[in-house]
Amino acid sequence: QVQLVESGGGLVQPGGSLRLSCATSGFTLDDYAIGWFRQAPGKEREGVSCISFADGSTYYADSVKGRFTMSRDNAKNTVYLEMNSLKPEDTAVYYCAAGPIATPIASLYDYWGQGTQVTVSS
Fold first, then answer.
1. What pLDDT is stored for residue 55 in this prediction?
2. Could you tell me the CA-to-CA distances from 113 to 56, 66, 71 in Å, in that order?
3. Regions in the chain scoring below 70 on pLDDT
4. Comparing C-alpha atoms, which of 108, 117, 112 is closest to residue 41?
5. Looking at residue 56, what is its pLDDT?
6. Of the candidates 109, 55, 107, 115, which has an alpha carbon nearest to the alpha carbon of residue 81?
7. What letter does residue 95 receive in the DSSP assignment?
8. What is the DSSP letter of 85?
9. pLDDT tens-digit map of 78-112
10. Contact of 10 with 121, CB cutoff 8 Å
11. 98 forms bridges with which residues in the sheet?
């Protein structure tokens, strides 16, 4: 059974940092791409970052380039999203997803986690 479980969200001040985790199980991480998406109230789900472990391709939205970084812990089958220099506009529910290719298009992902809330506020 495929599962993705996000954790690490919370309340942080502007300029602060958070690291989100996406624990995966039920599939081989090397065969999939993992994407991070976010959805703020009243807005569409937005592709933030994604990586293909099959070919190493990556994508970062312009709004997060230089601030967010994806990484992976092979032993734990966990993918991370390191978020630095956080801004109030980064406030959203963050989701990780697994799919066949690294793309910011949410509809192309097959499996989704339940989401974790990130709030950037003073």
1. 84
2. 22, 25, 17
3. none
4. 117
5. 85
6. 115
7. E
8. S
9. 999 999 999 999 999 999 999 999 999 999 999 99
10. no
11. 34, 111
